[in-house]
Amino acid sequence: MNVEDKTRELLKAEANRARVSSDAWATFDRRRRREPWRRAAWLLAGAAVVAGAVLAVPSIIEAMRPSNEVRIGSTPSPEPSPSPTVTAPETFGNVIFWPATSTKEAVELQDSVTSGQETWMRDPKQVALKFTESNVGWKSIQIESVSDIQGSEKPYYEGERFVDVIFRPLVGEGRTFPGPRHVLRLRALPNYDDPAWFVSELRSDNVVVDTPVLGESVRSPFDLKGRGVGFEATINTEVRADNQTRLHPRRDTQEGFVMGGSTEIAPFQGKINFDLSPTPRGILIVSSSSGLEGPSPGQTILRLVFAETSGAPSGEVQASTDSADEALRCFFRARVFRSFEAGRKCMTAEMAATFDGPLEFEGTSSPNVQRFTIHRDVSRSSTRAVVSVRTYEGTSTGLTQYSEDTMTVVNDGGWLVDSWTRGSSVAIGETRAVRVYLVRADSCPGDAGYESAWAFEEREIPRSDGPGRAALEELFTGPAPKPFDEAPTPAPLPLASRVLSLEIDNGTASLDVSQATESGGGSCSMGIRVDAIERTLKQFPTVSDVSITVEGKTEEEGIFQP
Amino acid sequence: MGLERRLECAMFQQAVEASRLTSGDARNHEIARLFEDQYPSMVRLAFLLTFDSGASEDIAQEAFVRLWRSWGKVRKRESITAYLRSTVVNLSRSSLRSRIRDRRRMRAPASSYESDPSMRVDMSRVLGKLPVRQRACVVLRFYEDLTEVETAQVLGVTEGTIKSQMHKAMKHLERELGGEKT
Fold this sequence. Notes:
The complex is a heterodimer of chains A (562) and B (182). Chain A is built from ten helices and 24 strands. With 562 residues, chain A is of the alpha+beta class. In chain A, 36% of the residues are buried. Chain B is mainly alpha-helical. In chain B, helix 4 packs across helix 7.
């Protein structure tokens, strides 16, 4: 008996063990009769939530008003006070960064403190000691005062409380010499009698930052201006994402400083370039250089909000992505590096349910996807995109097969991959390598370092494919996905760019691209886009000239205009 | 079929028939007829996917409740069975996932195959090692005798996916059943 017959027989025998109750119909009848009531109950519950929210608004507004009675929460209360209604502003996470990096985390920590845990967070002095030791590297500090500053200046949120801890790090031999004065500003969630204190900013008298300001939304590059004391007229700079990824100085360019400062306080300024952040927020660290190993004697740390993120966070759940193509890149990055957790952030719940949890997504029996390439849009609207992609499978040493798949991405307040329909697999025979040209540093055409900012990635493609079109599709799909602990390389072209047609005749490549290829961006970005296309096509000896049109529109009619 | 099972079936049919006669609603009438025809096979399908007799009845019940709820959307008589099968497969997946979450492993009852000692292959163990989608493919293809196209429709995937899933599942079954004596 073959395996199929044996399986059939065993399944039949097994199925007979299933029991059907004689009162099954009666049970079903009861369940379906409850249905209208169940719906009504859901509707009532929904209405109750809405009504509750409406009624709660006046009391929330009342609670947000500044209180006349303010005290520093350094005295632990004998009994944990009941948890009040949380009215934390959503933007609270934009101004605090330690030990919580979001409003949600802050509320959770506050609840722990209220229930009698993490009692050190009630004491501003202890918060200052722990923060400076673990985050700045100062083993000992000399606290001069702890002052409640409400009333002396306008608070950021009404009803919010904050304190300044003024201290000096002890530096030098034996840590006996008091360094420059620092102010650590701590803030508390509103409406807690016994608050936990969160670090909002650290300011040094030796490093005064005027621009950017606390909680400012920035994109790369941003201007840094201030006054400071700096060894050899340099002030050190660093930008970190909330998951501790270092975004500046970049790995390939070592400019972790700006010029300025002196032995006496003097102005400094410079442009800060940084990689796309995987998290929505981070910090800017500006320190006076000591010229010696070890922590700097002066440090200013400010909260930053990133105007754009890489869309592929590693530690933090992101509910959705901003575009269909970004969702696809996020999904395939998770697929390549086998992280169900990361993939779940860019999939609908239905799509996630098709995988049998992390085991199926991350296990060795799952398809060994190495990369993907976007071919074309099957259909695209503001709520749904169906995209034809090719997924390559194999190992890190070589590709073995590919399949032409169809991905559906839906927009439900954010783009999420909704389905992945696999096509039949095609074995890859002979391959060839094509180059995809990418800019690896912030540089614009005409800049001194522009030429050296270009680099290429080699991609293996089946020899049967047209190399020109394949190379462009690889370019338009963007840089190869990177592991989650590495910052992604920015894509030179918008991810929705598509090749519509390509003809090569007598040394001239005539390329027609989709409208999205020229969407957004300034003159620098447009120059890079055209350059990336030309460099990628001119790698082939048969191409000496490139003529680009955008959905039929020629250069004379105005294309790639910022 | 044993006397006990035949009595169960007879009582079940009588209960459904009685309800059909007393019900004036066309939807109820039609669903009662479907319930009589399809309910036992849906319970068996759920059982083969979950190997949990309690859960399998609950899953089949829920599938019929959902059919009743969406009656207006599923009018074609020929697509109702496919709808029920899809619902049962999806609910079984959810049930298994929640069980995995609870870190409880699936176990077969102790009294397997008492009627036929020559077939002492623990099918729940063999199928339990397969990912849910492959298990569903095997059950739909070999127990429900669906074609690859029909299986693809029930699972909402392409025929190619069914082929590849079946290929992997068959390798596993060959390994597990190939050496067993029958």
